[in-house]
Structures are given as C-alpha cells and as structure tokens.
Structure to design on (489 residues):
C-alpha cells in the first residue's frame, strides 16, 4: 500500500476547472523531507494567477450561475460525491501526502479519513442553513435570511494538508461560497489532486480554484484582493497578523484565523501515571510535534513528577524514527530545513538555559530532516522552550504544586488555542475548565478533535471557529427583512 514512487499526476494551477501553467511560467520545487530530494516542480502562482482565479470564482458566484441556482440539497450531494471520490483514491492520496509532507503513511491514511468525515458532515448541512422568523414589534413581518459571503480566499498550512483543505472547503461549499485556495508551498500535491476530483464530482467551473505559490506573493495577493470577501488562514500568529492587516487595508474583508499555540497539559497526582505519560506523549509527539494545539507545556504535580519524567523519557526513547513509508516508523522527518534548524536551535536553548535532557536532544544523521524525540525536565516558565512555540518533537516537563498556581501559570502566555487536564477529581477538572483561557479544553484525554465540535483559539491563537455548526457562520452573511403587514402589493 505504501509507495514512495507514487506518480504525481497534477502539478499545475487549477482555475475554472482547468489545470494551467502560471502566467509568468515560473515553477518551484516541492521536496521530500526524508531525503531532501525534489519530487517535482509545481507551477508558481502569483498576483496575476490569483486575479484569474478570483475572476473565475466571481463569475461562478453570479446570481444567474449554475452554482447559485443549484438547490442546496444538490450542493450537498456534490460534496458527498467528492468525499466518496477522496475515499476511493485514499491510498494514492496518502502516498502523495506522506511523500510531500514526511508524515508516516499510516498517519496520512487517518488524516484522509478525517477529511472525508468532515466533508460528509458539512454536506449534510447544505440544505439545513436557514434564518428565523422574528416576532418584531410593530406592523411588520420580520425574518432573517442566511446568504453566502461570496468569493473566499483560503490559505492552509503544511502540517495537515488534506485535512486543512477539508476544514476550509466543507463550510464554504455547504454555504454556497466559491473558493480560491492557496496550499502551503511545502505541500501542494494533495490539494491539486483533490481539485481534479472536484471536477470529476461535477462542481461547476470556477467554484473551486487552487493557486499553489508562496505566502509573500500568492498569499499576499489573496489577503489584499478587493474582490475576495473573506479570507481564512491557518498558520503562525505572525503571518496571521499580516493577513489581518492586508484585509483591513484592502476592502475590510472578513477574516478567520487559526494560529499558533503553547498549550498546557496539566497532570495531577491523583491520575494514573502510566496513562498520564502516554496521553502526554501523544499530545506532544503527534505529527512530529508539528501540531498547533500540541500539549507542549506538560505541567506535572510534584508528587509524581520524578516518576512521570522517567516514564516520559522511556516512551520517547522507544519511538521509532525513520522513513515515512517504513511500516515500523512512528515519527517521520520535519517538514523542511527552516523548521529543522529552528527546532534544533530551540533544543540548544533549552540546554543552555539549564533544562535537563532526559531523551533525545539532537539531530539524526544528515540525509533528511530527522530529530530525535526530545524530553526536557526541570523546565521553568521563563525558559525559551517554555514560552515559544517549537513545532517539533520536544516535550517540556514543568513541576507545579497547587491547582490555583498552575491555572495562573497555564494562562501566562500570549496563546490560548487548547488546554488539557488529567485528574480523577471532578471539582479540580471543573475549576480548571472554568478558568483556563483556551478555545478547547480536554479532560482526561487530548486532541479530541472532530468535525462536529468547534475549534479555535483565545488571545493570539486566532479568531473565529472552524468545524461544527459554528464553522458555517464564518461563511454567511445575515440579512434581516421586514415587510409591512396589510400592504396591498
């Protein structure tokens, strides 16, 4: 099933249901992070290509277009058909995802299953989006009407390429918007393949457009475009601020942002230490640690701290790191040289500032972007590794004494994407839930993300919500209509 020689069928820009070269003729390479070798050259979109894609999306959104006149239930059926096609092509897509991203093949399969579930969930919502009648004062019949916001720009990251595509496309298509999506330049291949499947499913021309390219060119062109009515972005807080600035300076387009995190996972000494170590391990090392909501600040109560550290180090040391297509691999390479160097730099800073390396702590060879799963103990709140997002396989274990103390320390960050707590005391869990500043709080589990549940952050972890019914609201305009009663039309 796993096939490192998977054929890349699509490497051009996708506009108006056609694959085309970039206006400039430029291309860029996409690289296999396991061996640093080029997979293929991909057409590089910039402002001119974004303009063409937006124009196609505008035409597809005109009132008389096939897409706008389509029954909402028919939209849902198209989305369901696309999800079925993705499922049919799952093996090919998983191979592409692993080749381009570096994640183990088994992880790519799980991501694609989740993407299929997300699209099916939103397909079911397509004909269930409606307004309300309002018993307003005065001689009026008043109701609200939900309308699609229009042409939307979507910019997705490299850590979960096909899953982030589904998170963005699901609510946008269910509400009747048209799309211009920029995949991350590191991982464009699965988005382009799914674009071909969308055409096969029967989506009308211009509804879905894909513009692979770089953030400062293609991404900036989307954020600043006057004919895009909403932009959705998943990525770093720094880039999210730039997108918000461009959106404000252009046409004050709507913005939804899912950004960085430095999420606390708090473990109390009444919880089973073996289960805690395993939960915390998965919370940090999932997807090579390249996860915005990773439980990267592991707070452990002092009574079990030393025992927990030893178990955490043992789990990390046993983790199999290697090629993404090896059936035994549990941890693949980091995405690229920039991320690789950043993670190694953060590890060195931890050593310099006095944290103790209990496992890992170095790179693995020079063939690919591999780093040993690393565990630090004796971490304090002021250390760089405890304050800044690492986005790599590095666990920081921090000691605490009391619930009130750890809540304050958990909240002492600019981020607020997620938080977790492991305890057998319901009062402890409820106080933590009530007081921690995070968009998602997981109790006696971690990363419990699904299509039905809203996801997003507090503070500088973003604004707006994805997934669930809340995710639809980001793509809708609400119109209030009042009709005078007893009027002779």
């Amino acid at each position: 099933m796993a096939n490192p020689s998977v054929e890349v069928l699509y490497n051009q820009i996708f506009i108006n249901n056609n694959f085309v070269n970039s206006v400039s003729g430029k291309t860029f390479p996409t690289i296999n992070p396991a061996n640093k070798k080029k997979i293929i050259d991909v057409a590089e979109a910039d402002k001119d290509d974004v303009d063409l894609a937006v124009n196609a999306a505008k035409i597809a959104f005109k009132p008389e277009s096939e897409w706008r006149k389509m029954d909402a239930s028919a939209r849902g059926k198209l989305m369901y058909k696309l999800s079925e096609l993705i499922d049919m092509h799952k093996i090919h897509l998983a191979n592409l995802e692993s080749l381009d991203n570096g994640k183990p093949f088994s992880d790519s399969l799980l991501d694609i299953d989740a993407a299929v579930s997300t699209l099916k969930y939103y397909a079911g919502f397509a004909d269930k989006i409606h307004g309300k009648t309002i018993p307003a004062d005065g001689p009026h019949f008043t109701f609200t009407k939900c309308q699609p916001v229009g042409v939307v720009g979507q910019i997705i990251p490299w850590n979960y390429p096909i899953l982030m595509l589904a998170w963005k496309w699901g609510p946008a298509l269910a509400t009747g918007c048209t799309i211009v999506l920029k995949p991350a330049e590191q991982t464009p291949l699965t988005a382009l393949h799914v674009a071909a499947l969308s055409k096969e499913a029967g989506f009308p021309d211009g509804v879905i457009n894909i513009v692979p390219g770089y953030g400062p060119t293609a991404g900036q062109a989307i954020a600043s475009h006057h004919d895009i009515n909403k932009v959705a972005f998943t990525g770093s807080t720094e880039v999210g601020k730039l997108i918000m600035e461009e959106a404000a300076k252009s046409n004050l387009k709507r913005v939804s942002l899912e950004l960085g995190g430095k999420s606390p996972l708090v473990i109390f000494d009444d919880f089973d230490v073996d289960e805690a170590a395993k939960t915390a391990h998965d919370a940090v090392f999932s997807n090579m640690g390249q996860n915005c909501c990773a439980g990267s600040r592991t707070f452990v109560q002092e009574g079990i701290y030393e025992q927990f550290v030893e178990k955490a180090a043992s789990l990390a040391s046993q983790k199999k790191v290697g090629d993404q297509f090896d059936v035994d691999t549990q941890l693949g390479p980091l995405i690229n040289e920039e991320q690789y160097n950043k993670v190694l730099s953060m590890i060195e800073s931890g050593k310099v500032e006095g944290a103790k390396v209990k496992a890992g702590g170095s790179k693995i060879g020079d063939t690919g972007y591999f780093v040993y799963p690393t565990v630090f103990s004796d971490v304090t709140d002021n250390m760089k590794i405890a304050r800044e997002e690492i986005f790599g396989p590095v666990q920081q274990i921090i000691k605490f004494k009391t619930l009130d103390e750890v809540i304050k320390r958990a909240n002492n960050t600019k981020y607020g994407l997620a938080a977790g707590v492991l305890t057998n005391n319901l009062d402890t869990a409820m106080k933590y839930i009530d007081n921690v500043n995070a968009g998602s709080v997981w109790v006696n589990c971690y990363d419990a993300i699904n299509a039905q549940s809203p996801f997003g952050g507090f503070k500088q972890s973003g604004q707006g919500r994805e997934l669930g019914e809340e995710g639809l609201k980001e793509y809708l305009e609400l119109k209030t209509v009042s009709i005078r009663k007893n009027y002779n039309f």
